[in-house]
Every structure is written in C-alpha cells, then in structure tokens.
Design goal:
It is built from two helices and four strands, in the order E-H-E-E-H-E. It has 88 residues and is of the alpha+beta class. The longest helix has 11 residues.
C-alpha cells in the first residue's frame, strides 16, 4: 500500500485562541498510523488565524476520517477541513 499526504485547515473558536496550545493539542491527538510533517499558522482575516497541518498516513480505509475526527476534538477547534489530498 502507498501513502497519502493530507493538508488539514483547522479553524479556532476565535481570535483569542492560543495557536501554540492548539498546535500542541494536535501533536497529542494525531492517531497511530499518521505522522505530522509540518504545521503552519496562516492569517485569514481580521486577526483570525488558521492552523495548517500536513499529515502523511498509510492509504488504508478509514484513516483519513479517523484523523479528521481526532483533530476536531482538539480543544478550542471550531472546524477541520481537508484542503488537499494526494498519493505519495
């Protein structure tokens, strides 16, 4: 089986959300079988920022949904969206 690279965009609950704490929560929430390749904070608008998380995982059934659900449970996360997905 191959591997899949996925870029997630995580939106915080508000402009006051500590993005460093949110990033630390991502490190603890990522499920087995997925590896974080990078994280970046991106300005969106009016002080709102998003956390972009690049993850590499095995191309197995259900791992993408499991990872997305785990990231959605990180404290102070409003939403999680798959921005890009591709085979390696």
């Amino acid at each position: 089986m191959g591997q899949v690279a996925v870029l997630f965009r995580m939106m915080p609950e508000g402009v006051e959300t500590d993005m460093k704490a949110m990033a630390e929560g991502v490190r603890h929430a990522i499920p087995a079988g997925a590896t974080i390749r990078g994280m970046q904070v991106k300005d969106i608008a009016y002080g709102l920022k998003a956390l972009l998380v690049s993850v590499v995982m095995a191309d197995t059934s259900g791992i993408l949904d499991t990872t997305e659900q785990a990231l959605a449970k990180v404290p102070h996360v409003e939403s999680v969206e798959v921005m890009e997905e591709g085979l390696l």
